[in-house]
Amino acid sequence: MDFSLNASTSDEWLQAVLKDFDQFLLDHASAERKASAMAVSFVVQYPDRFALHVPMIRIAREELLHYQKVLKLIHKRKLIWERDSKDPYIAGLQKHMSTDRERRLLDRLVLGSVVEARGVERFALIAGALKGSLADFYQRLSDSESRHARVFLELAKPYFSNDEIASCLSHWLDLEATVMISVPPRAALH
To answer: For the whole prediction, is pTM greater than 0.85?
Structure first.
């Protein structure tokens, strides 16, 4: 199931990232670490959903590898690691998650796909604005996020109907666009 985001990232966001790329790297590392933990949480919270296990472990490993690569950039630049702060974009989305176990699983899978799609867009924007090995790195990340976005939706199919998935996707695309636009541009992935 292919989809497009309902709103595009503003040029102001890209300018904020390029203006303070060091801060962006710190936030990016945090986002990759959290993405890895989130993928593992599917295995922990849904031990009865075997179709999720291997793909989520694979995603967790990829996200952890991304984290490691961003950490290498951080160390090379001798940046000071600070305590994580709450991501207003993710927090703004999570407060709309269902509390019903079944519906929450669908919400998490579909929202995971939508958030990964936002990563595809933003990493591609960064890749287009940079040069050399950093541009290549961010293009590879964009490609990886694209695969993850597809996997999240595919993983919903054994447990939910196409109509349920499509309806949930439409809901989250609308909500994600609203939340994304409400977060002021800053040197952060989201």
So the answer is: yes
